[in-house]
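WARN  no MSA supplied for this record, continuing single-sequence
INFO  ligand: NDP
INFO  echoing inputs
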Amino acid sequence: MKSRRIFLQKASLSALAFTALPAFSNAKNFTVRKEDKILRVAIMGLGSYGTRVAEAMKESKRARLVGVISGTPSKVTDWQSKYGIPDKNCYNYENFDQIKDNPDIDAVYVITPNALHKDQVIRVAKAGKHVICEKPMAINAKDGQAMVDACKAAGVQLLIGYRMHFEANTLEAIRMRKSGELGEVKFFQGLSGFVIGDPTQWRLNPKLSGGGAMMDIGIYSINGARYMLGEEPIWVTAQETKTDPVKFKEGIDETIQFQMGFPSGAVASCLSTYAMNGLDKFFLNGSKGWVEMQPSTGYGPIKGTTSIGPLELPHVTHQAVQMDRMAAILFDGAKPEVPVNGEEGVKDMKIIDAIFAAVKSGKRVSLT
Ligand code: NDP
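INFO  complex generated
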C-alpha cells in the first residue's frame, strides 16, 4: 500500500510538473515564445550572491545580465570580460542614476548589504527601472514601505528575491496543504541557521546589516511559516540567547527562538541562529498528514518527505527559475503562486520588527 501511495505521489508530482503549473514549477519545461520579451538586468553589488545570480542567469531563458553597478573597478572589468558587458552599461554608486538614459537595461537587481537597499532601490525607481531587491528588503517595515511607495510613485515594479517561491518541491508542499491532503494544519516548525565566520564582515555590523541572524537567515523561517501555513501571523513571542557578546554586539542577534500565532489557531515555532550549523528544516503538521523538508531553503536540491511519500521534483537552479518567472511577472503580468512583490517583503519586515520588540519587552506582541 505504501509503495503504491508513493508511486501515485510521484506520478501526481510529475503530472503537476508538466501540466498543472507549467509556468511556475519546472524550469526545464519553461517555454519561451518568440514574442516573449527578454529581461535585461544590471546587477548592483558584485559580491558572493551577485556572482551566484550572474552565473545562474546563464541558464535563464528570459533574463540576461547586461549591466553592472559596483564600487570596485577591478570587479567591473572582470565581469565585463566574463559576461560581455559593454562600457556603456557599467556604473558605480555615484553615477547610477544615469541609468535612466540607458534604454538597454530593463531592471536593476540590488544585491548589496541590507541597510543600503532602501536608498538604492529608491534611486533605481526614480531612474525609471524595475527593481529586484534581495532579502531582507530593508532593515525595518517603515523603510520597506517607503520603497514600495517610491516604486509605485515612479510607476515601476518592485520584486523581492524570494527564490523559494518558485521552487517546485516547495510549491508541491503548498499544493498539498491547499488541496486539503494534510487536513487541518495546526503546526509549523522552522529551523534556520549557520555558524557565521569572519567577525569583521558587514553581516555583523549593525549599520550595514540592520540585525544579525534574523535579518539574514531567520527570515526564511518567517517567510516559510507564512507560505507553508497560508496565513498571516497575528502575534509573536520571542526569546534571545547570546553566548558571544563580542562577536554579536549590540544590534546583532545571535540566536532567537520565536513563536507566531495565526488566525486559524495554528502556531509556528522557529529558531534563527548564527551559532549552529546545518539548521535548514521545515516541518508542517496537519490532522491528515505532514510534510518535512530538509534542506528546505538552501540552494538545493531541496529534499522532502511527506506522510504519503517523498517530494522529489527535479532540482533546477533556483535563481535561474526565479529570473525567468520574474521576467514573466514584469512583462506579462504573470501571478506567482506565492507573491514576490514589495508588499510581501514588508510583511516579513513587520514580523521582524515585532520579534525584536518581543525580545526587548519579553511580552507577546500583536500584529493586528
Ligand atoms: P557580499 O558581501 O558577498 O556582497 C555584497 C556586495 O555589495 C559587495 O561585494 C559590494 O560589491 C557591495 N557593497 C556595496 N557597499 C558595500 C559596503 N559598504 N560593504 C560591503 N559591500 C558593499 O554579500 P552577499 O552577496 O552575500 O549579500 C548581499 C545581499 O544578498 C544581502 O542582502 C543578503 O541578505 C542577500 N543574499 C540573499 C541570498 C538568497 O539566497 N536570496 C543569499 C545570500 C545573500 P561591489 O564591490 O561590486 O560594490
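The two ends are 46 Å apart (CA to CA).
INFO  checksum written, moving to next record
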